[in-house]
Amino acid sequence: MLSDPQTITVSAIGIPMPKVRIEGSKTTYQSADGLHRLIIQSTESKTNTRYLVRFEEDVVSPDPISSVNKKVTLAMYLVVDQPAFGIDDTRAAAIWSGFTGLVTSSLLTKILGGES
């Protein structure tokens, strides 16, 4: 069981998100203002288990064409497909460590800028 609440730090501000819903293997954490969500989910099949970690942030922003305020959502998520055998949790955690070391905010900024 993960700790409750989960907290994400964005621009040096901690955003606590208490658990608000459990539906089978899907758990949702949400900030008090409802603008931030963390979704943790796992799905098993015969060949693998898929783990999803998804963070969402809502903002209200004026549409650049109509100037009407609209709610928009940014979502970032990570999916891990772990085979039923051959790659254990220890190896998956080691790969995760390397992956998160690679995908820095600097790299993400370049990708969002259109580089590949």
In short:
The chain contains two helices and seven strands, in the order βββββββαα.
SSE map:
Blueprint: E1 6-10, E2 13-17, E3 19-23, E4 26-30, E5 36-44, E6 48-62, E7 69-83, H1 89-102, H2 105-112
Antiparallel strand pairs: 1-2, 3-4, 4-5, 5-6, 6-7
Distance between the termini: 37 Å
CATH superfamily annotation of the largest domain: MS2 Viral Coat Protein
Strand-pairing-aware structural class = alpha+beta
Radius of gyration over C-alpha positions, nearest whole angstrom: 17 Å
Helix content: 10-25%
Count of structural domains:
2
Give the rounded overall mean pLDDT. 96
CATH class of the largest domain: Alpha Beta
Classify the fold: give the CATH topology of the largest domain.
Answer: MS2 Viral Coat Protein
Gross CATH architecture of the largest domain: 2-Layer Sandwich
| Main sheet characteristics | 5 strands, antiparallel
Provide key terms for this protein.
116 residues, alpha+beta, MS2 Viral Coat Protein, two-stranded antiparallel sheet, 2 helices
